[in-house]
Amino acid sequence: MASNYANNGKSQMKHQTTNQWDDKLWAASEPVYREAFPEHGRKSEAIIRRMFNRALCTLHVWSLEDATVAMALTAYDERTWTLIIDYIAVNQAWQGRGIGRSCVERIRDWAAAVQPECRGIIIEVEAERTEENAKRIRFWEGAGFKLTDYVYAYIWVPETYRAMTLSLNSAEPLTSDGKELFKAITRYHERAYRGKD
């Protein structure tokens, strides 16, 4: 487990990460996770535990003033040298204070430090044209991500998705081919749900 501290206004925001199941950290982050993602849009605790057992993911937890303010689950794809942000959420009571942007910056810095060969970060966003989805896309664009054109349809959920990327290595930027990016994303999801390696 690693920790670091980042300035966030006048307060200090603590960032903890673990790639092993941690009951205490999960208990702190689970309410934020459940608040942000409806049941059909989140992985169960049993699946997440299995992901940790198979070394598929890292849990990130941010806290301020002894309160958990944000969480994220990330996965590293060694075939493409990219970090996938599976979930990221800010506690509703703490939204609108720049915490989400700060968390993305911490993930970027963490990825560069932990995986020096990491070429970039991928996030998937819902493709349906709604104001809520447009707001999410604007958030990610404000954090430096670029939206790709390809629309991907999963067989197990009704929503369609597009990939967004943030390149960390200007000499080897991530592809803008969404179809290729979704190969890494679906490979991760398949391993998470079905245990394929």
UniProtKB/TrEMBL annotation:
Keywords: Transferase. It comes from the Bacteria. This is GNAT family N-acetyltransferase. Residues 16-167 form the N-acetyltransferase domain. Coiled coil: none annotated. SUPFAM superfamilies: Acyl-CoA N-acyltransferases (Nat). GO terms for molecular function: acyltransferase activity, transferring groups other than amino-acyl groups. Pfam families: Acetyltransf_1. It comes from Cohnella terricola. InterPro entries: Acyl_CoA_acyltransferase, GNAT_dom.
